[in-house]
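User: Predict the structure for this protein chain, please.
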Amino acid sequence: MIDFIPSDLAHFLYVAILSFLVGLELKTYRYAVGDESAFHIGSTRTFAFIGIMGYLFYRIDIWFYILGYGGLVLIYLIYYYFKLLHDRASIISFLLISLVYAFGPLIEIFNIWMPTLLFVIIVFLLGADKSLGYLLERLNVEEFETLGKFLLLSAVILPLLPHTKLPYIDISAFEIWLVVVVVSTISYGSYIAQKYIFKNRGYLITALFGGLYSSTATTVVLAKKATSAHTQVIDSAIVLATSMMYVRLLALAFIFNKEIALHLALPLLGFAALGGLISLALYKRGAPTQAPIDDRNPLELGTAFLFALLFVAMIVITKYVSSHYGDLGIKVLSFIIGFTDIDPFVLSLLTGKMELSASLIVSAILIAAGSNNLLKALYALLFGRYVPKKAAAVLVVLGVLTIIAGIKTKGWI
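Assistant: Here is the predicted structure, written as structure tokens:
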């Protein structure tokens, strides 16, 4: 993986963020159990500073670290004395202070996975058997568990996997799971943006971010909302979701294979821009409408493991088809795959270490994207009770044009 920032700075920032989140989760826990008294030793900012102090002291000298911990113990003893005078005996805050203070040494000794795993355990333990009550209206506590799942995928499982190449597919378990992490990151990031940054969202915002993690699922959800009262807005949103699919594919290509990404940039950006312009034209004919869209989190551990299995299966199938049926077989396969989930197939082409020419890979990705548009057009009609007809027509046109671009790839690469 490419290091964009120095490791020391990355470790420092990571410790500070995890420490802050532990403090925030402790504050959440106090609200949930009805312990809202001001008689506390601190929460979010205090814990962030404790984590920073532990990291810096450990890096300076182990004796600084020990003396710093001794100072924290002394402060807590004084606090605990007055706490006992008020008939309060819980030491959970001290335990969390000790664990947060240990983040610094843990990330230096075990790397990022150990403090991450510790954070996940803290969140799950604090979140067990508590009523959300007042806090649930302001902060969805389940999101901490979702964050824990994401960190488990990316910072715990990934570093532990071997880099040894697997036979036949010529790719390591680490590289396979890295693909899962990248896709999960895009999906989770767009989900968070859609749910928390743009809470009062319209249909176009839903399509914008929903299309980044699954244009097919977003098309189905939008189509189900279609009524004669706001047909134009739904048509616009469905087309925009597919436009974002092109952006998503280009982003994945740049992450895993820059050479292919450069070849894909022109057609994918062109189709994304075309879809965006058509979406804007349709939107101007309709009235802005709030979107009560299904915002269930796409990040599930079972889904991640299934994606990994599909990714490996696509590598095996693609290798077999390539060796037995040549370029034509790959193109036919890409068209068929388009009527399913295309991400595992596209990523198998980008990362599968197969002996395929750049033009063939580009062609296969475009054909798969095009046929996937045809599938979404069918979904729009079926789930929308034939209301979003314009969106379905546009998706068919985009699909056909994308397939043609894929077939004619050799003419412009």
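The mean pLDDT is 84.
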